[in-house]
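Throughout our pipeline, every protein is held as a single compact record rather than as scattered files. The record that follows is passed on verbatim for readers who wish to inspect the format.
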Amino acid sequence: MAARRARRLLGSLCIALLFAQPSPAGAAARSDSRSLLTESLVRTFTPFYFLVEPLDVVAARGASVVMNCSAHCESPPRIEWRKDGAFLNLVSDDRRQLLPDGSLLINSVVHSKHNKPDEGYYQCVATVDSLGTIVSRTAKLTVAGVPRFTSQPEPTAVARGGSAVLACDTSPELAPLLRWERDRQALAAEPRLLQLPGGALLLTNASDADAGLYRCALDTGGAPKYSDEAELKVLPDAEEPQSLALLKPPSSLTRLPGQSAVFPCVAEGSPPPHIRWTRNEEELPTDGSGHFQLLPGGVLEIRDVAEADAGTFTCIAESGNDTLEAQAELTVQVPPTFLKRPVNIYAHESMDIVFECEVTGKPTPTVKWVKNGDVVIPSDYFKIVKEHNLQVLGLVKSDEGFYQCIAENDVGNAQAGAQLIILDLDVAIPTLPPTSLTSATNDHLAPATAGPLPSAPRDVVATLVSTRFIRLTWRPPASDPQGDNLTYCIFYTKEGINRERVENTSRPGETQVMIQNLMPETVYVFRVVAQNRHGPGESSAPLKVATQPEVQLPGPAPNIRASSGSPTSVTVTWETPLSGNGDIQNYKLYYMEKGQHTEQDVDVTGLSHTVTGLKKFTEYSFRVVAYNKHGPGVSTHDVLVRTLSDVPSAPPQNLTLEVRNSKSILLQWQPPPAGTQSGQITGYKIRYRKVSRKSDVTESVGGTQLSQLIEGLERGTEYSFRVAAMTVNGTGPATDWVSAETFESDLDESRVPEVPSSLHVRPLVTSIVVSWTPPENQDVVVRGYAIGYGIGSPHAQTIKVDYKQRYYTIENLDPSSHYVITLKAFNNVGEGIPLYESAVTRPHSDTSEVDLFVINAPYTPVPDPSPMMPPVGVQASILSHDTIRITWADNSLPKNQKITDARFYTVRWKTNIPANTKYKTANATTLSYLVTGLKPNTLYEFSVMVTKGRRSSTWSMTAHGTTFELVPTSPPKDVTVVSKEGKPRTIIVNWQPPSEANGKITGYIIYYSTDVNAEIHDWVIEPVVGNRLTHQIQELTLDTPYFFKIQARNSKGMGPMSEAVQFRTPKAESSDKMPNDQASGSAGKGSRPMDLGPDYKPPLGGSNSPHGSPTSPLDSNMLLVIIVSVGVITIVIVVIVAVFCTRRTTSHQKKKRAACKSVNGSHKYKGNSKDVKPPDLWIHHERLELKPIDKSPDPNPIMTDTPIPRNSQDITPVDNSMDSNIHQRRNSYRGHESEDSMSTLAGRRGMRPKMMMPFDSQPPQQSVRNTPSTDTMPAASAVPSAELPEAEGSFLPAEEEPQGPPTAHVRPSHPLKSFAVPAVPPAGGAFDPALPSTPLLTQQGPGHAVHAVKTASIGTLGRSRPPMPVVVPSAPEVQETTRMLEDSESSYEPDELTKEMAHLEGLMKDLNAITTA
């Protein structure tokens, strides 16, 4: 809080420097009089607002209109009017005049086809001099045109008691002026007569008195205009049933809240139809007492419409067995309303302020800002932020006035305003800073104490100049050279602009600041003012700095247009970009099918291109990018265009026939597949014929419904049908002919069916198979059968099955239980007489298959039908991320696989994730099925079965298919940020993968910024390759809040960003940090190579050890003696061991014991210096690795630099711990221990000297140069390497598993294997984790940004390196040594040792080359 108050005080006091700088004497005088100034009077806000605003008006031609307006202010405001944005001159206007209250009177509205001076948008403008101007909402004046009818009444006949609709429609603004007459007399109001919103007349419950001549009339102020007369005849009651028909279906409406909505639904038929309504498939309560009213004739009235009433309204008319439905949409539009209005603001010059304005409405309103009546045009200093808010940067005195937020959508507009007062300097803002002041300048003054003020800051320079930011640094003033208690204001402006902005330093004593959000290639003027507790001091001299120019890439190509010239092609045209430095070289046209995620592109040299080979009647998006010598420019916006339609390319699907009676057949089908419709389906063409007379074809054209009842057929006749889909372009291919035969006679459904003729039951252990035969009387309609069953009573459970079914299996029964079963046939009249049977389920122990039939009638039991053969060759073809096509073959069909009977196929599918997923099924009548609605990147299994009548097959063999990937549809989860222990400038970001990855995650992008509201392209980007879930970010600013977002990507693209996570870095460096902490990572256990930084310089003399070797007390001669001594001792001991081992018995057990005695006979006494064992010779140097020795043809390898790793994560550390606990070794850091343990050779009693060299998988032909070493490395540049029986991956952190094989393995457990050069394992090869191995430098996995490390083979070290340090590490622990010896004893033969001896001699020659160098 104290720091915040200090910054507020600083910012406001610094504003005083906007005026001329005072002399020191003047400054002292100002300090003495400051308390008087802060007590100056503060101007108060002036109430200035509209009492009445104009409203929309509809007027008749020649009438008078008043547009109301009245404003309130302490001083009477001056009222003016604008029409269509231009001020009206009311002084010389005869027809329009200003009324005393400010309203506008228009006499005798003028309106004609070519002259419409009064129609338009009006706005009231109120002005108070020396205060400001405000504007009202905009009101629309609409003039009703010449009365005319868009439809006329037509002669109509209606049955007595029926309903009739007489049409008479006119324009919406004249509809309220329409009335009806019968026999030229005005119609009296009565409930049976209802005038619909469009003007039509609805007559219900017609009687003889309703007959006559009807006409409608429009009264617009003059003589009425009449429509044509139409006669209405009332007929006697209809004797025969009349089919159901809709006379007036509902039509979609748009209403505002509070209005009424009327949906007609007038139907005729016999018996009289019943009308009911649903909204969004839910029944509407229309009892007459609520929100919804059902008027006579089936008309639905919605009173006082609310926004929640919007939806789809369905009218359902029912007459006997006929039902008709019609739908209409109700859209509720809401004028703009304010959720947050702008508030009055006090401010000082140079401050940044924000006026907040939040609006809602439907459609979403647009917002513009007005200052003193003039529209605010966005610029560098006036910006629209967060969609609706107005930000003003660098206030000047002329910015004072009234600001209004004006919101507008299709159904209205509204305004709300606030006043800005800019106070004089040194006048405190009277209240706490409002939220509308920005964080950099929300400061107000507090009285300052008298005392000396600081002088001007010295040596103001721009140390970093970029295209959009500048870093300034300076020295404290001469009056206060320490400057610990000084804060600073930095004033800056564009050259030639009088608006000066201010930026404050974040903490006392800080002498640098970063000025951001600047414009490229622009000159800015900067000055710095120091501030102490007495106030601001003198200003520094102005400093002019020009930002750098940006690379001028082409702008977007203007006027891009796309048009479809055919069903498969689109022509795109554009113009040359207006901006760009250099000639346009070419263009790249991108296009993509709507709903897909993969763009295609084509190179274009001109300004137009025709894309061919597109899908028919499919929407595509197109955009163009221009290229110049600098690269790609800014993309145009996407333009959408749909290819032209064509005739369908495939027939309708799944055509089925259902014989209704002796004269009619019902056809049902599905539309052609979505990709083959080639346009909007306008109808279906049905062709049918008698099978016996194929030349006689009848055509029937239907609508877009997917069923058609063909009537008027002959009894007992077989007919063939085929269906084709139609678009506006024509008729597509038809289905194959499908046949069905009408009944010989119609069945009776005036009574219930008779009892089924037989019932058979076959009990099993937990189920009973029930079969039956239909009733003997076949003349009564049977719609299905009802099966009841239960223990002791048949009424416990009831199951209904189709009338075609003849058997059913009752499942999930109890063993050894007595069940009573009943069977009844039913139809629409009711259920028939039941037939009873009983059966006892078998016990668990009964596994026999003896069938038991209980026969109630002299009928032979019906055996189960034999099953059909299952489909074969089931295949799954992946079409998209959510669609798979299943195809199969049916061996029970002819060779041409043509289906001629009524069989159908059932397709089932499921996924095993999660494991308890249930099967989904669908039926098909063809040999393929399109499965949609699947999840992306998911494995599904599919199987198919066929059913024909009572026979069904088993499920086919399964086919599998994995849907394509899709971009992630959810952001990464559980994003957390923590500070790294001991490194306050480094943070670790952790996260979890997105829940809807929709594919394999190939990487992440971390965005971070100190401003959560900054544009996303201004955030810093940290890419993370692969599926890692953690990342380190270094060199952050201390005590600074950062915001982090993470975005996942897969092969299809980028997913959404996570919510911003805030984290503040610690305030200061760790207090317990050692002086050499920066390099401690390379001296301890599990150490990591350090980031050398951009300022690194290699030490003189080419030394690779910044602090000297661990033997720094010894001179170089001593180092050479040690190396030679170690080599000689090793050769002698190895020869003795080799000779001794070869003379041992060949028995495996004896050889094992001999090796134990000869190699490690005294390992139990490792503390005794007399029993020092043959040493392992290791050559080691920082980041150099021993390569497989190859006879390179190049005798003088070229030396190259080794790139420095970017951070500590780029190279996985070598684990050098002797701890047997592998998990502890993985992440332990023992920097101080290693430094102490490597001080001198004198302290190394009982230790075995080693020289280490890392190995690399790069070939020896690779060129080499000395690796530069940072001066921050610790004294220990070589570390002991542990012999760990673990694979290479175990040395990585848990979240960083290696992606490739280790580069080399060495086996230090055997004294003669220390210099063995292992072969590089094949890629992807498995490694035996039991083998003791030391990974020296982990190879980066594929996909990672590999930092190459150039290394030398040992044969080139003498020519490329100075003498290397020798390290004497501690001996391994007893347990590990024993394990290593056992491993070596069982792994090496005497012949191998002889070979190694020969190899060792070559290595020693190279060692001599090192010593001579």
Q: What stands out?
A: Residues 226 and 325 are 35 Å apart (CA to CA). The mean pLDDT is 74. The two ends are 66 Å apart (CA to CA). The first helix runs from residue 2 to 14.
